[in-house]
Amino acid sequence: MKLIDTHAHMDDEKYEGKLDSMIKNYVEEGMVLIINPSYDKASCERTIVLTEKYPMIYGAIGMHPHDAKDADEEFFSYIIEKTRNEKIVAVGEIGLDYYYDYSPRDVQKAVFKRQMEIAQDANLPVIIHCRDSHHDTYELLKTFKGKVKGVMHSYSGSWEMAKLYLDLGYYISFSGPITFKNSRKLPEVAANVPLDRIMIETDSPYLTPVPFRGKTNEPAYVQYVAQRVAQLKGISSEELVIKVIENTKALFTKI
Ligand SMILES: [Zn+2]
Question: How confident is the model at residue 137 (pLDDT cuts 50, 70, 90)?
Fold first, then answer.
């Protein structure tokens, strides 16, 4: 069966020394591609190295809201230059996180907006991180309607909210939590999102799906996310993954 992971942090230290054998297995097991998003300058640099080394890994560059306080003009110039790299297919992950509030909210908003402008200028899609910040995230994305598209990564909101993002042209991506028994809103969202706007991911090394919850996550486990989403859509996992591959290529047009 083919597989795809639209969001995995393979540059995480947890995979150090293991990546060669992991990627070799993935090639044999049918993994088509992995998108590796960044969260700060060092992870952008590591991501670019991975994209050069492994054909199946594509990258996104950007400053996560947690680290927004570290974004300066030098960083913005750096990512503007790297948007021209042929295997950098998006700006991300960017957005707002009001759950942890690791950076002041006004700084998060300013850095988010600036990176949306960079994505627009580079004609690249965005990968959005949004936690407990749906109102402000939506308001900002709305100002770029028709100019920037993207994916709501590891979506955690309601179906009502998802409809608004779909109207802006965004894709909705599901990860491990869709497999959790206590997941209440997500099954409804997955059942309702049109097939041509769905993505799946692991967000490795975080958010490990059932039945491996508690262990380090890895892209191979995306099959459990695929199974659950496919079940909610009433189709086979194979059909779902084929659709997600199409969707991924439709949004990330440099792939
Ligand atoms: Zn992530």
Answer: very high
